[in-house]
Design brief:
homodimer; alpha/beta; Rossmann fold; six-stranded parallel β-sheet; DNA-binding
Chain lengths: 328, 328
DNA sequence: TTATTTTACGCAATCGTTTGCGTAAACCTC
DNA sequence: GAGGTTTACGCAAACGATTGCGTAAAATAA
């Protein structure tokens, strides 16, 4: 491949002149510019980003770590991120942990090592998980976390107010007169799942309604698993089922149908995410909208801001909204 | 950040020794190893990937260009790619064109420039589009294209046999006794869409059935657009509708219902992709399965192979299958 | 003990850029 | 036309690694 030296040679000038010219610095006269342009064209020269990164220690590259791209909500977050990032001349390095928390450390490790200028880690951790590790990371490189809601970690973050979203759902259902609820959560020890459950229970509690132990089941954010959970829960005859994702809500719909019940007449179902899925089901799902694309965009903006001028940790909270359709 | 020099200094050895040791080369005695380990731990040294890349000209990084990550099929392809690539110690740079073909050149341009060791471009082009440009790219860097099916370009590629998939659909429908068909394509000038349409028409043709001009409409791979297209097409009273994606097929289902028809009794609907969507709709969609995750994995394997030993362009074809559910 | 091989490690060039410093040439000003 | 600015560009030192070559020291052989 042609390098800056070869074009300098061909143009009969010094490499520094070529460098300055391609960097858009002024002070190079027309005649020289033309010679350089000609040389560049002839050799098919393109500046070597890696070399540039080494010298300037800016890579124009941002690392993204996600649990999996196959979950539409994460895909949406990534979409929001890449849109904003690309618009700001950053490229993105994607690392997917495939839902293995253990791979997160590995992924972040490879991304560090001077490969990226900043990092965004999306998705909640299990238990207390990699808390300490991330504490360390944020001292090495600008970091923003998305939907990872430590009680007291001091991170730049954009978080969706999952709890508030669940309360909207509960509030709405109670208002409609339902009293006997069931919930399908994601993973029992997953932060996001817990927050969603917590908000729902909390709102019910304030309305003086108890949610029985038996009325909560894990659906693992999977259609099939949620279907089985739903079959079990339906045995307890809930009046309404709250699922922690639209996909799982769709499974509830299916289970309900297979039990010979009809939604919303016999039972209400409510999902979470307002993903495409929620429009597609019959009946279309009432759901808690969580603005995933915007979350990604917000994270990108926050990171860019933080890289420009570091400072105390900043936080942006994404609102949730209730989208009422036909399943309630 | 600590660099190799500082650890060499602290350990009291030469940088070359540190370099060799961390690279796993032998011939460094125990005593020295311990000193180096101590220095590394104390300084928190991690090798600088960019510098290494510059010297060795291998980045351990692969570029991926996709139209959009929000389409589940592309997300699946990316998932397959990253899984295989990460397993082979590559990181991935993702560039999303947001369906703007014009951004493709830009994206590939940034990825080139010594940033990646190889490139995979997924998604079909418009018209003849960026053909010449990619011709050029493949001389610069190992390249594999996914689902971009030139008539005669000499590329490494993994392609899904869309035409065959459509023929399966047509064959099946004709076998069931349907004779009057409508089709919702993606984009009129999009390769993938054209192939899907072509296969369907071809099979019908062989069976002596004509597909009227009016019976084909663009759905732009969008739920809403496809819904409108479907409303129009239903006016012509087709016996079966073939949609070029599951999402659009779901829209057809909705349109059908809104017209007071019931699937499959009054009309059959068939989708494409076998994405999660196809299980979720009521009735569940009969669809052409296209193994997107496996396509991604195959592309990764192919690229790795090509990088190891270049040679004449290789090609892998992904089969399609008919998955029969309740919509036909 | 001496000669020979092997092991362990230092020296310095290199990858492709950027950039501070230095200086001829060109341009003004009077 | 001498003095002072500005403009255009060359020189060389970095950035943080890798690696071929060279050589003391250690190990082995004679």
């Amino acid at each position: 491949m042609a390098n800056i030296k070869s074009v300098a040679q061909k143009a009969g000038v010094n490499v520094s002149t070529v460098s300055r010219y391609v960097a858009g610095k002024l002070n190079v006269k027309k005649e020289t510019r033309e010679k350089i342009d000609a040389a560049i064209a002839e050799l098919g020269y393109r500046p070597h980003a890696t070399a540039k990164a080494l010298k300037t220690s800016v890579t124009n590259c941002i690392g993204i770590v996600i649990p999996t791209i196959r979950n539409p909500l994460f895909a949406d977050i990534v979409a929001g991120l890449t849109q904003r990032l690309e618009a700001n001349k950053f490229t993105t390095m994607l690392y997917s942990t495939e839902n293995h928390l253990s791979k997160e450390k590995e992924g972040i490790g490879t991304l560090l090592a001077g490969r990226v200028d900043g990092l965004v880690v999306v998705g909640s951790s299990g238990k207390t998980g990699s808390r300490d590790w991330l504490e360390e990371v944020k001292d090495i490189i600008p970091l923003v976390v998305v939907n990872r809601c430590w009680q007291n970690g001091d991170f730049n973050r954009v978080i969706t107010d999952f709890t508030a979203g669940s309360r909207l759902a509960a509030d709405y259902l109670v208002g409609k007169g339902y009293r006997r609820f069931a919930v399908i959560t994601g993973y029992k020890d997953n932060e996001e799942s817990q927050l969603k459950l917590y908000g729902f229970e909390q709102e019910l509690w304030q309305r003086g309604i108890m949610l029985g132990q038996d009325m909560v089941a894990e659906g693992f954010f999977s259609y099939d698993k949620a279907y089985h959970a739903a079959r079990k829960l339906l045995g307890y005859r809930p009046e309404a089922v709250f699922a922690a994702s639209d996909l799982m809500a769709a499974a509830v719909l299916k289970a309900t149908k297979d039990c010979g019940l009809v939604v919303p007449e016999d039972m209400a179902v409510i999902g979470y995410g307002d993903s495409q899925i929620s429009q597609i089901t019959t009946p279309a799902l009432t759901t808690v909208a969580q603005h995933a694309v915007e979350s990604g965009a917000a994270a990108a903006n926050l990171l860019i801001e933080v890289m420009k001028e570091p400072g105390p940790a900043r936080e942006v909270i994404m609102r949730t909204e209730l989208v009422v359709r036909q399943s309630t």
